[in-house]
């Protein structure tokens, strides 16, 4: 079964009713991508 990409981002609106897989806590917390890194000019 495919993992729900919205769940991985932390915003699946279907929750327990989602037809895609929501990974279990035994695998760790959902992946939360970080924002863009700051750019530094030398």
TrEMBL record:
> Which superkingdom is the protein from?
Eukaryota
Stretches annotated zinc finger (C3H1-type):
1-25
Q: Does the UniProt entry include the keyword Heme?
A: no
GO terms for molecular function, please? Answer: zinc ion binding
Please give the SUPFAM superfamilies that the UniProt record associates with this protein: CCCH zinc finger
Cross-referenced Gene3D superfamilies: Zinc finger, CCCH-type
> Which SMART domains does UniProt cross-reference here?
ZnF_C3H1 (SM00356)
Query: What keywords were assigned to this record?
Result: Metal-binding, Zinc, Zinc-finger
Q: Which residues form the C3H1-type domain?
A: 1-25
Q: What's this protein's name? A: C3H1-type domain-containing protein
Origin species = Rotaria magnacalcarata
Lineage at the top is:
Eukaryota, Metazoa, Spiralia, Gnathifera, Rotifera
């Amino acid at each position: 079964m495919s993992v729900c990409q919205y769940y991985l981002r932390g915003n699946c609106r279907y929750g327990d009713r989602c037809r895609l897989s929501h990974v279990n806590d035994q695998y760790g917390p959902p992946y939360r991508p970080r924002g863009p890194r700051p750019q530094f000019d030398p």
